[in-house]
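Review box. Two proteins, two foldings.
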Amino acid sequence: MPQAKKAYFDSTKGVSLNTYIGLFSIAVLWIPHGIFTRQPLLTYSNVISLFFSLIIIYAISRDNNNYKIMLYAFVAMFGSLSIYLLGSLTIRVSILMFLTLFLRIPQMYKEKKKKNIEGISIFTWIIAGFGNSMWLGAGIIKKDLGLIIPTSFNVAFSIIIVLVVLLRQKSLTVLVE
């Protein structure tokens, strides 16, 4: 929610479109996984993530005056969802793990390469890290590798994103003073 608010009302500079298309697509995939594995909280939390990711994608589209971006998001969503729903449990878990593992990398790359953090909400990544650590715990308790593996990486990547933003903010403060 903090990133959606910042993107919609303030700025999307430094926010990775690829990360949010990935988050949007992965939320779509976690919803049926939560239904199939009888984990309603997984389903509900991803419905909420889907909504906020869509707001961010819309804000990036609006700021770039390129509404084709919305179409790309929906194509990615329907493609992933089709493969997920038609595949076996192994394929489903593999798709979830692959997408979840790599969806934060574009944001990390953009932070490192562009060095523009203006539109990034650090609270979003703190909440993501905390939330994923809770899902990691749930995965460990349920012995669900489909939760354990991707959420482990998500916790680590969220921590890295927060640290990079904090370091850039500190270096920017030093430069301004």
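Next protein.
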Amino acid sequence: IKGKKFLNIGCGPEVEPEFINLDYFWHPKVDICWDITRKAYPLEDNSLEGIFTEHCLEHISYEAGLKNMKEFYRMLKP
């Protein structure tokens, strides 16, 4: 994770080597197994240059989606 500035949320088995890869289920090369509906992300404030998520957020509630947007804002550099 050290030195990586991009986050791939809900990566599944399709990990990106230049990203911090996060998924609910563990797969080889997933960096963080995390339930994005329950807790704040285990990453520092203003620590990321970009966040990618595809086919992930539509599977969580509206309220959880709003919490995630706030977390994205917290983690992204200005």
